[in-house]
Amino acid sequence: MQLEIITSKPERDKKPTPLLFVHGMCHSASCWENFLPYFARHGYESHAVSLRGHCKSYGSGKVKWSSASRDYVADLERAVGTLDTPPVLIGHSMGGYVVQKYLETHDSPAAVLLASIPVNGSGWFALRYIRRHPVQALKYMLLFDPGQLLATPQLLKELVFSPSMPDSDIAKYFEKLQPESYLMTLETLFVSLPKPRKVKTPVCVIAAENDAMFSTGEEQATALAYNTVADIVPGMAHGMMLEPEWQSVADRIIAWLNGKGF
Asked: Which of 17, 66, 74, 169 has the most Cβ atoms closer than 10 angstroms to its Cβ?
């Protein structure tokens, strides 16, 4: 079963511990297009995986009933297994959920949760979305299709990006959206929430001040569950790795990694 893994390697001063990035809902490895070369320039061998059913990984487009807590975690396990050295895991949004579930049963040098699905799940986001967009929420439920939540460029911009994001960039990222698992949305709502007490790995939680999906309060609760404090990035929206000021987020991750000796 083939997984798409995109890699950027440092030209010199390579650090011993690689990084493995995990994308969020309806995205793929390409969402790390800014981070991969940037972290490589800072000495980190950097890899990004497309989970099953996404982009060029196996089962392309066929993910409706894939389990994030089992199938996506298994994909992450396979991706980790392709590397010679255990990597630091960096997960965005749904990818943060996958990383959390992986860490319940696996060790890792360290992990970064970037605007991650919180430990208490996506329930508050669901309620906010239903109130604001009841028709789209109904389409999601009737069609069993999470893609309905981001069905237009306007919805993508509202939920994921800052108002200042150029419309040309919104159109580009909208074209790259992938089908997503309906079962995943149920798991992250209430079926299979993260269990932080099972995790021994040091975790960094980075939140966006203007995140329209997960509040800073939810992210602080997630950080507290992992015995840390969330690093809240001012002026940033949910899609931090693609926002115009993405470099400031990458620098925060690098600073945390350096502080941990990576």
From this structure: 66
Q: What percent of the chain has pLDDT over 90?
A: 97
189 three-state secondary structure: helix
Residue type, position 189, single letter: L
Q: Is the confidence at residue 244, as pLDDT, over 90?
A: yes
Helices (H), the chain: 35-41, 73-81, 94-103, 123-132, 134-143, 153-160, 167-175, 182-186, 216-225, 246-259
Rounded CA separation 159/147 (Å)? 13
Q: Which residues contact 253 (CB under 8 A, 6 or more apart)?
A: 39, 90, 112, 114, 204, 206
Q: What's the one-letter identity of residue 221?
A: A
Angle 36-39-73 (CA atoms, 0-180°, nearest 5)? 55
Every domain of the chain and the residues it spans? 4-259
For domain 4-259, say whether CATH 3.40.50.1820 is its number.
Answer: yes
Query: What pLDDT, in 10s, does the model give residues 140-173?
Result: 999 999 999 999 999 999 999 999 999 999 999 9
Give residue 1's pLDDT.
79
